[in-house]
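User: Can you predict the 3D structure of Sulfatase-like hydrolase/transferase? Sequence below.
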Amino acid sequence: MAQPNIVLINCDDLGYGDLGVYGSTINKTPALDKMAAEGVRFTDFYVASGVCSPSRGALLTGCYPQRIGFGEFDGFRVLFPGDAIGLNPDETTIAGALKDVGYSTKIIGKWHCGDQKEFLPTNHGFDSYYGLPYSNDMGRQVEDPTIDDHDRLEALRSRPPLPLIRDAEVIQEQPDLRALTERYTEEAVKFIRGNKENPFFLYFAHMYVHLPLYASENLVNASENGDYGACVAGVDWVAEVLFDELKRQGLDENTLVIFTSDNGSRMQDQGGSNGALRGRKGQTWDGGQRVPCIMRWPGKIPAGEVRSELTSTIDFFGTIANLTGAQLPEDRTTDSVDISPLMFANEPTTSPRSEFFYYDGNNLEAVRDDQWKLHVRKEDEEVNELYDLRADIGETNNVYDQNPDVVARLTGLIEACQRDLGDQVNGIQGNDVRPHGRVENPDTLTHYDPEHPYIYAEYDKAERG
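Assistant: Sure. Here are the predicted C-alpha cells for Sulfatase-like hydrolase/transferase:
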C-alpha cells in the first residue's frame, strides 16, 4: 500500500457540542456531518490539556505535556509573545518522523509552541509554515473597558502587533482576521496540488473559534448563532474545500483526514457548546478536555461508525507512525498508542488506551479508565469524587462512597502517574520528565513603537480568551 497522505485539522476552542453530528441544532456543519457519515466518529476522545499550548505540544509529540516540560510556563498556563520558553528542539514531532520517511510536511495556522526562532515549526520537522505563532487575541486590540487592573492594562497596551509568518519570517503585521481563514485555505490547496505526486502531511491549525470572533460577512449573514456560528461555519467550509480538492486531485482514497479541537469551549454564554458535558475550557471536568474527533479514509475506515472507546490526541503520533512506516522515538518515553484498530473496526473493541490522566498545569486532578473517572483535586481544593461516565456523562452523580474498590484501583493509577509525571501541588517531581526549551535574551517577532501608533490597525473587538 502506498504511504497515505495525512491531513490533520485542529480547531481552536471548538466545543463538544458545536457540530451538528455532535448534537448542535443551531450551527450548520454539513461537510463535517458528511465526514462523520463517511468515516468514524469518536465520542470519548480527549485532549491532554484544557488550554492551547500544552494541548498542542502533546498532540505533536505524543506525550503528556508534563513529560515534555509543557505543563506550565514560568507560572503561566500558555505561551505569550516573546516568551523564552518553547517546545524543546530535541523533541521528535509527528512532522519530523514523517519527514524522515519521505513526507512533505506543512503547518498552516496557529502554532503556539514558542515564538523564538529556535522553537518555530521549521525547527520541528515542518518543511514550511504559514500562520500565526500564537492565539489571535495576542495582537493589538481596542481596549476592554471591563479591565480595571492597571498592570494588565499596561501589558495589553504594549503588546506587539500580531505577526503573520511564512516559515520563520514575518510577512505581515495585524493581518485582516476576517479574511485569514480564506488565505489559509488557499495555502492548503496550493500545498495539496504541489505535492500530489508524493506523500504529504498537512497540519491545518484553525484560528477558529478562539476569541476574538472574526468571520467573513457572508458567513455572519447566514449564521443562526451570531459570530460564533459564523466561525463554526467557516470551519465547515474549510473541510468542504479540502475534501473537494483531494477528490479533484485523485487523492481522496489515499488520504486520512482527521478532525478535532485543542480543548473545550469557554463560550457557552456566547454561542459555544460543550453539549451535556460539565465544565469548560481550562478545567478538568470533561467539558474542558473531551472534544470532537472524526476520521475519514474512503475504502479503509468503515462509513458511519461511532466509537465510544477511550482515545486521545496523544495517540495520533503512534497511530500515524504505524500507518506510514514512521517511527516513534526510541531514545525516550512517549505516551502514544496506536488506535488504528478502533478506526478500522466494524464493532466495539478494546481500546489500546487503558487510562487517561487530567492535569491542570502540573497539578494532577483526575484519572479516567473506560468507565470511571476519579477526581482527587479541583484547582485549590482536594476532593473525593467518582463518576460513572458511561451512565453520567455530565459528572453530576458522585458515587465515590458506593465504590471503594474502584476508588482504590484508580487511586493506584494516580499514585503511579505522580511518580512518573509529577504532581506539583503535592511536591512530587516526576521520574521521567524532560525540560522544555529555553533561550537567553528572548524577543518578540514584532515590536510596537508608541511614537508611531498610526501604522498599526487595532482589531476592533476587545474579546480575549
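The mean pLDDT is 94. The domain at 356-434 is CATH 3.30.1120 (Arylsulfatase, C-terminal domain).
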